[in-house]
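Lay summary. Proteins are chains of building blocks that fold into shapes, and those shapes determine what they do. In this project we predict the shape from the chain. Here is one chain we studied, written as its sequence of building blocks.
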Amino acid sequence: MYEKILVPLDGSELAEQAIPYVEWLARKFNSEVIFITVCFAGDPLERALKEYIERRAEKIQSLGMKARSACIEGEPATSIIDFACKNDVSLIVISTHGRTGVSHWPLGSIANKVVQRSHIPVFLVRSSHLGKAPADKELRKILLTLDGSHFSEAIIPYVEKLAKGMDSEAALLRVIEPAKLPQLAAYRDRKKYEKDFMAKLEREAERYLDKKKTALASKGVKVNSVLLEGKPVETILQYAEDNSVNLIALTTHGFSGITKWAYGSVASRIIEGSPKPVLLVRPPLPALNT
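And here is the predicted shape, written in a compact code that computers can read:
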């Protein structure tokens, strides 16, 4: 599942902070690493870009891993995705806060476009201006967020592979939002109804999590499950911080599940707010019946 890892670089040190994760993943899964940069037609920096990306590949090769480089022309985000599709790339690892380095394109904005368009899983690394190497590159704790919908479950096989390959622990997190009914006279027992409704949601969510937990455990994954009440984004980020999570995994777009929170907006806010790496999968939308 992680046979080929594509790493877009713009020549900046911020972008290169993704490389320690790439090295760890490549070593664990015997992956081929492909470093890529994009230049425009006639770009006077093309030679410098090619040499830069070649040196990055050579360094990985010197560590005993498979690696190659590619310098291509075109619009950065489109070119990265097209290259990934044509070369059967399994995972794109990209920094969320690149700054213009050797190239003319800001990697941070490109990362956002790649996430929006790519159906290949994207591993986003939030780089630090302090220039420090990530301390938790081994990804010992993976937080997998689910909303009860089949769409959100598209991330599960990727987390399963990661967890087994790296002997990591996966935590399944389900967040349900407090039920609030309109202030209408018809709801004289509104508080009791809300309480009963939430109790029902919690029972359903617990059964759902137990089922997913049992399925992963049967495949050899170390896994636990957590059910929390609150606002999805804030609850997910707080749990990740409190429990020293190394990676947050979720789908980038989803339909409202039992808890009625849309995964598209949740994913974008997780990306913006998380200091942890984020693994995102954007499954194709189901075809509509005609």
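What the prediction tells us: Strands lie at 4-8, 32-39, 66-73, 91-95, 122-125, 141-146, 169-176, 222-229, 247-251, 278-281.
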